[in-house]
Design goal:
- This protein is α/β, with parallel strands linked by helices.
- The chain folds into 2 domains: 4-44 and 308-419, Alpha-Beta Complex (Aspartate Aminotransferase, domain 1), CATH 3.90.1150.10; 50-304, Type I PLP-dependent aspartate aminotransferase-like (Major domain) (Aspartate Aminotransferase, domain 2, 3-Layer(aba) Sandwich), CATH 3.40.640.10.
- 39% of the residues lie in helices and 16% in strands.
- It contains 14 helices and 17 strands.
- It has helices spanning 14-19, 46-59, 69-88, 103-118, 137-146, 164-171, 193-202, 222-225, 250-255, 290-306, 308-327, 358-367, 380-386, 403-419, and strands at residues 27-28, 31-32, 34-35, 97-100, 124-128, 149-153, 177-181, 206-210, 229-233, 244-248, 266-269, 274-276, 332-334, 348-353, 370-371, 373-375, 392-396.
- It is globular.
- The structure holds 4'-deoxy-4'-aminopyridoxal-5'-phosphate (PMP).
- 4'-deoxy-4'-aminopyridoxal-5'-phosphate is lined by residues 39, 102-104, 132, 134-135, 181, 185, 210, 212-213, 233, 378.
C-alpha cells in the first residue's frame, strides 16, 4: 500500500509512487524510461511483485483441494482477492465476480453463455463505433452464429463522443444487449454508462460495460451504474497479466450455463451427468490463476491506498496540462474530447503530426526513452473508418506519470519535427 505520506494536497505524490515501481528506475535506449503506454498495460509496484513472489515462496498450493494449511491459505487469499475486487467495483458479493484471463475473455464469456442462450435470429445486439476489438468480435461471432443483427451507435460530428440521436435511434430497436466501453482506449472519451444503462433497461435490454480503461483510473460502482455485466483486466490496474474479471448480477450469473467443464466447476460428477458448483466457481473450470488473484489483491490494496478519487483527479490535471502543451504545437491533432471537456475524458491522448507517420513518431519517442503506442489500437473500425486514418500515436497516463513525463513527450515531438523538417 502506498504510504499516507505519499498523498499530498495536489492529490498524489508521484515522486514517491515512482519509487515503488522498479522498472521506472531503469533506462531505455540509454535514457530514463518514460512510460506512457499504461492503456496497453500498467507497470507493477514492488508490493504486487512481492505478493506474487511471497505466494510462491511461502504458501504455493492448489486451492479448494487440500486440507492442509498452505492450501487453505492459498484458497483464503484467492477468495479474499475476489471479496476485495467486489468491494472495489461496488458489487454486492464476491459471488458476482468471475475470474477470467482478461477483459477479452470476460466479454467472450458473456457473449457465449448469456448470448448463446438469449440471442436468437433477428434479435438486435448493440455496440458503438468506439469499441475495442474485444467488444466487437465476440458480438460479430454471436450475430453470425445466431442470425442476430449487430447495430452500432454512431459518434457525433467531431468524433469525440456517442451521438445522442443515434443512441436513441438504435435503442428504439430494443436491443437485447448493449455492450459499451466505459472509457475509450483511443479517444479517451468517458461514456455516461449510468444513463446508458437506464435508457437500455427502459427498452428491455441488458448492458455490458467494458471497463478495461475505467476500473484502473476512476471510482467505479457497478451497483450505482446499474449495469448487468462489467469486464476488466488486472494487468491494466497494476496487477499481473492473465487475471481479469467478469462482474455479473447474481440472478443473471445464476441463470447462465458455464462454457467450460472440468474440475472445480462441479458439485458432483457421475458417469453420465454432473451438477454445477455454486457461484462464482461454476464458471471457473480447472486450476485457477492463483498468483493472478493474489497479485490482483495487492494491486487493489495499492490503488485503495492512494484512493481512486485522487487518481482520477491527478490524471485529469495531467491530461489538462498535456492537452494545453499539445494544443500549441502546429500540425498536431489530438483526437477525442477537447481540453474544455476534460471531465469527459480519461488520460489517453491519441494524436497525429502532419507529415510524420505514427510509427515513425513512436520510434523517435523510443529513441528518447519514451514508450508510446502507434497503430489502430485494436479499434480498426474507429481508427480507419470513423477517424479516417490508418494509425494514430497514443500516450496514456497513470499514477506514476507527471508533468516531467509530458515535457519529455513534448520535447520528443520537437525531435520528430526536426527530423522530418516540419514547421
Ligand atoms: N477494451 C478496451 C477498451 C481496452 O482498452 C482493452 C485493452 N487495450 C481491452 C478491451 C482488452 O483488454 P485485454 O487485452 O486485457 O483483454
Amino acid at each position: 500500500m502506498a504510504s499516507k505520506a505519499s498523498i499530498t494536497k495536489r492529490g498524489i505524490d508521484v515522486e514517491s509512487i515512482k519509487k515503488d515501481f522498479p522498472i521506472l528506475g531503469t533506462s531505455m535506449n540509454g535514457k530514463r524510461l518514460v512510460y506512457l503506454d499504461s492503456a496497453a498495460t500498467s507497470q507493477k509496484p514492488i508490493q504486487v511483485i512481492d505478493a506474487i513472489s511471497n505466494y510462491y515462496k511461502t504458501f504455493n498450493a492448489n486451492i479448494h483441494r487440500g486440507i492442509y494449511k498452505i492450501s487453505e491459505q492459498a484458497t483464503e487469499e484467492y477468495t479474499a482477492s475476489k471479496v476485495k475486487l467486489a468491494k472495489f467495483i461496488g458489487a454486492k458479493s464476491y459471488q458476482e465476480i468471475v475470474y477470467v484471463r482478461n477483459t477479452t475473455e470476460a466479454i467472450n464469456l458473456a457473449a457465449l453463455s448469456w448470448g448463446g442462450a438469449n440471442i436468437k435470429n433477428g434479435d438486435h445486439i448493440l455496440i458503438t463505433q468506439m469499441e475495442h476489438h474485444s467488444n466487437i468480435v465476440p458480438w460479430q461471432m454471436l450475430a453470425q452464429r445466431t442470425g442476430a443483427v449487430l447495430d452500432y451507435v454512431m459518434l457525433n460530428e467531431d468524433k469525440s463522443a456517442i451521438d445522442e440521436s443515434s443512441l436513441e435511434e438504435q435503442l428504439s430497436k430494443n436491443p437485447k444487449i448493449f455492450a459499451v466501453s466505459h472509457a475509450s482506449n483511443v479517444l479517451g472519451t468517458i461514456n455516461d454508462v449510468k444513463k446508458i444503462t437506464r435508457m437500455t433497461h427502459e427498452h428491455g435490454g441488458i448492458v455490458l460495460v467494458d471497463g478495461a480503461q475505467s476500473a484502473p483510473h476512476m471510482p467505479v460502482n457497478v451497483s450505482e451504474i446499474g449495469c448487468d455485466f462489467f469486464a476488466l483486466s488486472g494487468h491494466k490496474m497494476l496487477g499481473p497479466t492473465g487475471i481479469g474479471a467478469l462482474y455479473g448480477k447474481r440472478e443473471l450469473l445464476d441463470s447462465m450455463e458455464p462454457i467450460f467443464g472440468g474440475g472445480d466447476m462441479i458439485r458432483s460428477v457421475g458417469f453420465q451427468d454432473h451438477t454445477w458448483n455454486e457461484l462464482p466457481w461454476k464458471f471457473e473450470a480447472g486450476t485457477s490463476n492463483i498468483e493472478g488473484g493474489i497479485g490482483m489483491s495487492a494491486a487493489i490494496d495499492y490503488l485503495n491506498g492512494i484512493g481512486m478519487e485522487s487518481i482520477r483527479k491527478h490524471e485529469m490535471e495531467l491530461t489538462r496540462y498535456a492537452m494545453e502543451k499539445l494544443g500549441s504545437i502546429a500540425g498536431l491533432k489530438v483526437y477525442g474530447p477537447d481540453a474544455k471537456h476534460i471531465k469527459n475524458r480519461g488520460g489517453v491522448i491519441s494524436f497525429s503530426i502532419k507529415g510524420a507517420h505514427p510509427h515513425d513518431v513512436a520510434q523517435i519517442f523510443d529513441e528518447n526513452g519514451i514508450a508510446i503506442r502507434a497503430g489502430h489500437h485494436c479499434a480498426m473500425p474507429l481508427v480507419e473508418d470513423v477517424l479516417g486514418v490508418g494509425a494514430v500515436s497514443r500516450m496514456s497516463f497513470y499514477i506514476y506519470n507527471d508533468e516531467k513525463d509530458v515535457d519529455a513527450a513534448v520535447k520528443a515531438i520537437g525531435e520528430v519535427k526536426r527530423i522530418f523538417k516540419l514547421n
